[in-house]
UniProtKB/TrEMBL annotation:
Superkingdom of the source species: Bacteria
Stated name of the protein: Uncharacterized protein
Record bears the keyword Coiled coil: yes
Positions in coiled-coil regions: 51-157
Ranges for domain CT398-like coiled coil hairpin: 14-192
Domain C4-type zinc ribbon: 202-236
Amino acid sequence: MKAAPAVQRRLLDLAEVDTELDRVAHRRRNLPELAEIAEAEQVLRAKRDAVVAAETTLGDLDRDVKRLETEIDQVRARADRDRKLLDDGVPAKQAENLNHELETLKRRQGVLEDESLELMERREAVEQDVTFAKSELATAEEKLSDAQGRRDQAFADLETTEARSSDRRKTVLAELPTELVTLYERVRANKGTGAALLRARRCGACRLELDRTAISDLRAAAPDEVVRCQECGAILVRTSESGL
């Protein structure tokens, strides 16, 4: 295949654009913010679970407190009724039974009030746990939001770079012959780099220095002959820097 040296040099511009597009694609896949977001989402799930667990415990305690309060109210109401009966006057035997019941109710009320006090103390501690868990959750949400914002900005910057490079690629492709582009694309698909500068007898794609035989063949090739690296297959663009 033949192409004017100036046309072949334009392959370097195409290779440069493709390298930039590859860098954009690689960076998009490997943004540090992506790993940070994944970790932040995991932390956020844990913090949400912690809030749910704390609120569930608090709800259970509230039900227990309400149950005890109801029992205490019932005991007090029963005691008030017994005292009213005593005040109204009842037979001695019934009065004895009522007094015994009042003593029992008094002890029961004391036990319930102690349990209620203990529950209220536990509830206060759990309420603090809920407040702390919600604070931790808010912090986790802020960290995730911040990482997502930086990711979105990075993606936007990459999209701008990609659009600019894609436009430049179209411009370069329009100036190259179809046959040469086809070869370039085939080599690039197989080897990763379609064309590279031969500088100081070293291939710019594989970075290997060509042996004497290869250099002799390149020196003998016509300037418009499209040549390739014997090591990696990339199209070699020869210039005054090639050392031939």
